[in-house]
Design goal:
CATH superfamily: Phosphoglycerate mutase-like
Largest sheet: 5 strands, mixed
CATH architecture: 3-Layer(aba) Sandwich
Pfam families: His_Phos_1 (PF00300)
Shape: globular
Radius of gyration: 17 Å
Distance between the termini: 26 Å
InterPro entries: His_Pase_superF_clade-1, His_PPase_superfam, PG/BPGM_mutase_AS, PGM_Phosphatase
Binding site for substrate: 15-22, 65
Number of helices: 9
Helix content: 25-40%
GO molecular function: phosphatase activity
Strand order of the largest sheet: 3-2-4-1-7
Protein name: Phosphoglycerate mutase
Length: 245
Amino acid sequence: MKNTFKKSNILYVFRHGETDWNKEGRLQGHLEIPITETGERQAESIASILENKGVEILLSSDLKRAKRTSEIVSKILGLNPIFDSNFREVFLGEGQGKLISEVDFYFGKSFWERWNNHDPAYDELHFPNGESKREMDYRIHHSLLRITELFSGRVIALCTHGFVMTRMLKMYKNLSQNSDRPLQLDLSDKAENSTHSLPKGRSAGFETRRKLIEQKISNIQNGECIKFHSEEILSREKLSTVKTP
């Protein structure tokens, strides 16, 4: 895709509200599971955070849990959500509907550990008949390139899913060229360190960034919101996809 960006974008990316399957530790993938009352309150909290961020465009995965979350947010922001299947959760194939505690039994010893290991050595890993991490990265990356070009210079909010946000952190926040920019890894977290000023010096800043990102990657909660910049997306080397047999 040819990049013709005129102005940078800010993207506020947030995870959908809680579902019963989130509470159970059951894998959802593309299955349609509604959000709970707690999930609806989380959506309202996200809306209150975004209300003063100047959001102009509201995008969302078209899966029911994200769709309902974005509909709640849209009423407060006064925006019509745009639903896009490209921002769906990773497709888990035969893993969908399984409890996390059952994964290793069905798919082999340490499968769950390897699935959550984001070293590039595991990027081709996939559940049987599911989407690999690399394939999902390609889908998300090129969708982000498309929407940031289409809405150049606009402030965008995107409602998506936990594994999507995990991979976005890995793809875009680990880049050394961005190591001097403050990290805002959880806008919904009221703790004092939710925005991190990095130490001076490229190597020190990169190491601090890496540690903070690794902590967040393993702990993205329902209703969390992370700030991205279009420069972070553009600075990513062109992603290629290798079809998994």
